[in-house]
Amino acid sequence: MSVLENFDSWKQFLANRLEQAQAQGMSQQTISQVAYEVGDYLAKSVDAKNSEEAVLRELWNAASKEEQQAIANSMVKLVQNEANNG
């Protein structure tokens, strides 16, 4: 099963990658930029595998670049918060 088929698996995948990036000393600004690039790629190139991803894609496509950056930052915060509370 692909990590994209289940939203919880996707969030766990993101949390693991975020933890690795932070352990390697990647700055929050760089993480934010990478999150934006991943979000943009997914919205343009990957079919949504579940309803949560479909909503995120619709929001992404309706948003300005600044709003897309905010969406990406929010996903980073979501997985950070879940990692800290889990």
From TrEMBL:
Species of provenance: Ornithinibacillus bavariensis
InterPro entries: DUF3243, Uncharacterised_YmfJ, YmfJ/YflH_sf
Entry protein name: DUF3243 domain-containing protein
